[in-house]
Amino acid sequence: MKYQDVTNYVIEKYHVHPEYLWKKYPSFAVLRHKENRKWFGLVMQVEKSQLGLDGQGKEDILDVKLDPKEVEFRQTSLEFLPAYHMNKTNWLAIRLNQVDPKQIHDLIEASYQLTQ
């Protein structure tokens, strides 16, 4: 799954349009509820070196908010990382090119429900 796939999915499923809040980070898209304005996701393209990954170039990631126990459990897998620029107890970074789209959709839904 790619960055654009996530934003398209969220627009279609939740009728939420990504918000680009920072000129310095034009590829950082905030996903938040219309009603309460709480964030349920942050889609980013981040240099692999900033994520502690080998290689050059950027990695498409999605931060989602989850139960702390689930965050801790999932971080044992290479497909997931500690959240980038978010509270690492409650947020998890998903490596979009490493995780099945169905699982990504499920994690977005969990984050959406948790932040309502």
From TrEMBL:
Superkingdom of origin: Bacteria
SUPFAM superfamilies linked: YjbR-like
Name used for this protein in its record: MmcQ/YjbR family DNA-binding protein
